[in-house]
Design a protein that fits this description.
By secondary structure, the chain is an alpha/beta fold. 39% of the residues lie in helices and 23% in strands.
């Protein structure tokens, strides 16, 4: 009985933290803390989180200019930077200086020279207008209190015909449903292109006309 009680209590604590974090994120920006960056770099997590699947769903091509909102330590942005060679350029915007520093260190260690990072708020105009082919977010949209403003900036940053890609995974405290993602993207001016995967792990791609 004691073991059952411990398991039930632990599960209740996890659920409570999940709900509190989710509710709080509607008012404040609560991204994954820099202190947990190591967990995002784990090869095991890369496999469990479907990083390769996400990259394939986005479909990067050589020569593209790409922008990731909330790249953290570069779980997706580092391999994406390699996929757009030769001639491509990768940029990451993150609000946490510790994540930016870790991203830059890992890029240098990996010999990746076509990647740069910007510290800042994704709801602000931090990059030139119509300068990217792809803008993508992975389990990040829900961390941004003003999601509308962030997606408007994504729209502004993309070239005509450019693609916005949003990936969500159930279990993330900031999970956004397919219907919510579609609604927010359309309100920002995007048109749906495709939604790949089930509701528990999907990538929704949109196009800027």
């Amino acid at each position: 009985m004691l073991i059952v009680w411990i398991v039930v209590t632990a599960a209740a604590v996890v659920v409570a933290i999940f709900l509190i974090w989710r509710l709080a994120s509607r008012k404040w920006s609560l991204p994954c803390p820099t202190i947990l960056a190591w967990s995002l770099e784990s090869p095991l997590l890369q496999r469990l989180s479907g990083a390769e699947t996400i990259l394939q769903r986005i479909g990067f091509r050589p020569g593209q200019r790409i922008l990731e909102i909330g790249p953290g330590p570069g779980r997706l942005l580092l391999p994406a930077a390699l996929r757009i060679l030769p001639g491509g350029e990768a940029v990451g915007i993150d609000i946490q200086p510790g994540m930016i520093e870790r991203l830059q260190v890992r890029a240098k260690q990996s010999g990746i020279t076509n990647l740069s990072a910007i510290r800042g708020d994704a709801t602000q105009p931090l990059v030139p207008e119509a300068s990217f082919d792809v803008v993508f977010l992975c389990t990040v949209l829900g961390e941004i209190p003003d999601r509308d403003a962030a997606l408007r900036q994504c729209y502004r940053a993309l070239k005509a015909g450019g693609m916005l890609s949003i990936t969500e995974q159930f279990g993330d405290p900031h999970y956004q449903s397919r219907s919510t993602v579609k609604r927010l993207a359309e309100e920002a001016g995007f048109h749906p292109q495709s939604i790949q995967g089930g509701w528990w792990f999907f990538t929704a791609n949109f196009v800027k006309d």
